[in-house]
Please model this.
Amino acid sequence: MNDDVLSCRAVVKSYGESPALRGISFTAAKGEIVAVTGASGSGKSTLLLCLSGILRPDSGEVTFAGRRLDTASESERSRLRRTDFGVLFQFGQLVPELTAVENVGLPLLLAGARRREATRVASSWLERLGVHDLAGKRPGQMSGGQAQRVAAARALVTEPQVLFADEPTGALDSVNGEAVMAEMVRVARGAGTTVLIVSHDARVAAHADREVVVRDGLVEGPDGRLVGEHLATSGGLL
Model:
């Protein structure tokens, strides 16, 4: 039985005349933690954006739980990001006017939960990430590491099937970065969440079950060759 929950095949994405993905294929299994690494400009963040439905590829297929994302409407993809997907960015992007518990509960409120229930669930996730004592504090009153843990709680509060994390420790020092990764991975494993981590940091990649190296918009194979089903430069198979 195929247990892949997220995949793409022969995905191509360009920004104007600049190709970012050149026929990349990728799979992630249920509950698997995958680190996508590569140099700046390799295409790894664009891969995350296409897999999460934030960007639509120019061609190729993106599939989540047997459903095509690349052909889904914007409203369908937005709904998935509110329910089945969690997204964590480098700087957390917490709402500065809201407290920690309000930030974490926000996705639940947007999904129609009552405020009391959203607060209860948000509080439990702050506790899981080790920052329950920050429940009443606003982002400006937190350290970088604390704010990123709150952001991780917000990304996980809907109990998504997939968590997308783009350079989740990039704005943190090594000590805080390690602490955030350890907590995030611990909680994700406990929930059976598939995690896709984009990072250039080998210490972050060490937390994953598997590392996928992206170079020039394609996956780098074990022998160092680029693997893809289409090359924009040659129009052929590699």
Observations:
- Residues 96-159 form one domain.
- Confidence is low (pLDDT under 50) at residues 231-238.
- Residues 106 and 159 are 14 Å apart (CA to CA).
